[in-house]
Predict the structure.
Amino acid sequence: MVLIELACLVRSLGLSKHVAKLLGEGDVMKQTMTLATIGYMAPEFGSTGIVSIKCDVYSYGIILIETFTKKKPTDNLFAEEVTIRHWMECSLPKGAIEIADADLLRKEDEYFVVKANCISAIMELALNCSAVLPEERKDMKDVVVELKKIKQRLLNNINMFNKYGSIRNSDFFCKIKMETNKTSSRPYHDLVLW
């Protein structure tokens, strides 16, 4: 999966790590005058010039948002107070389907529910990566682990759908036998262990 490889690359080749090493061995954070791309730079870098590995995590989160929404942080939709992150945060969790890139998710897709759950999980991860406060962001190694879990859930759910029949949309309902021996009708996507 390209996202996992990109996350590994960010983790191992992160710009901030190399800049910090150049500026002083062993320091976790350094202040610098390095230029950064607007929309992708972490808030702490933009306001103080502080470089840390968490800056890379922030940038990766913005790249995830851009990848799955087909919106750029510099689009006209985003004014001074509304960032791409804020826009997505206000849309989730229910609006994941509406803000997802239409090329990635179509209602007529055979695995619509599975793909919607996967994209929603990645969007939640992107929000965590792009948290305003650096201490609230995951470490890059944890991001890689989470992406691998999301990928495995996606593959498991596709295999389950292939085994039990094709599901084309979220209107599919199934009956499940509850522990109390009562039968309950619930939307299938609520039953998928995501």
Q: What stands out?
A: The first strand starts at residue 30 and ends at 31. Residues 140-164 form the longest helix (25 residues). Residues 2-191 form a domain with the Transferase(Phosphotransferase); domain 1 fold (CATH 1.10.510).
